[in-house]
Every structure is written in C-alpha cells, then in structure tokens.
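Researcher: Please generate the 3D structure of the following complex. Treat every line as part of one assembly.
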Amino acid sequence: MTDDPGGARRASNPAGAETPHEGTEHDPDVRFTYANERTFLAWNRTALALIATGVAATQLLPRLQIAWGRRMLGIPLIALGAIVAADSFRHWRANETAMRRGEPLPRSLTPFVLAAGVVAVGVLAAVLASFGTG
Amino acid sequence: MARERTVLAWNRSALAAVVTIAVLLRHVWPLRGSGQELALGLIAAAAIIWSVVLLLFVASGADSSMHVMRGPRVFYAMTAATVVLAVAAVVLAFLSPP
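Model: Done. Output below.
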C-alpha cells in the first residue's frame, strides 16, 4: 500500500505521461488541434458539396414525370448538408473538450448519417428515373 | 507541416464556399453580355487578391511552434454561414419551377 494518490494513476499509464487531474484542462498538443480543425473543415466542405449538389439537382435535372421530382431529390440533399455542417461544429467542440481534459475522443454518428442519407437519395433517384422524364 | 496542411485545408474550404455561392447566384443572377465580362473581372481580381494574401501569409515566416488558437467563434460563424446557404438553397428550390 502506498500513500501516493497519484501512484495508481501513473501505474495505469505505462508511458508515465502526466495526465490531468479530474476536472482540470490543459492545452492539447498543437498537432491534434490542427487535426481537429482540418477534420471540421473537411466536414464543412462535404456539407457545401451536398448543398451545391442539391441546388444543381433542383435546377439542372430535366423535369420528371413525378410532380416535384427534382425537389424531392434536391431538398433532402440540401437538408443533409445543413445537418452535416451543424454536426461538424458539435463534433469539433466535443473533440476539443475531450483533448483538453485528456479524455477519449467521442464517437461520431455523422459518417453513418451521411452514408444513409446519400444511399436513400440514390434509391429515390433510381425510383424517380424509372418513371422517366416529363 | 501540420500548420501548412491546415492552411491548405482553409484554402480548400474557401474554394468550396465560393463555388457553392456561385452555383446559388448563377440561377438568381443569369449573366448575359457585359455581365459575363464583369463576372470574369471579379473572379480575376479575387484570385489576385487571394494569391497576394497567401504569399504574405507564407512570407510572414511564422515560427512553426507558434499557432493561432482559433476560438469556437470562427467555427460557429462558418457553421452558421453554411446553414444559411442551405436555407437559401431551399428557398431557391421552391422558387424555381417544379
């Protein structure tokens, strides 16, 4: 037995690195901060691409047999872009907080949401295309 | 190098934003005749300004260990601007023929 309260913490950290005490924060490694920033920017670019694709779908596609067909394709893409943009900020902030506290990074559902959304729009596009153009 | 990659990422994001805005504006402001020359002139001027600012930034020779900790306001503003673009795109979708 030891009186050293930090001994157990150090024992669980073989690298011997200082871990912040619970409730304290510290500036994370600048490389990880930059990586978090680049991740946010990448998600933001993805959101912009979804929005641009949605606009293009509503404006450039030929008129479809189904009424409002182009809007049915474009508006979900635009909405997906807005969701991805909003979630990218939430995830950036959660990562930043976790890094400052020395906690594990939180998992993100954004890739799943994005993949599911794009697949859904793709299936919808295939269904609408099967009806032909107007 | 991480800083350089981050700078490049900001450049890519700026390009993506410009393209998205151009796609939105294209259907609100159709360019005909002298409007096309005006648009080309604006694009050329923007490219020159962008290049100059980027060169100045690189030439500033900032220490690689120095970094600007961008607070959450910058990212919040970017996110808000993207959501505003999305809202504008939805409005545009409803204003165009179905």
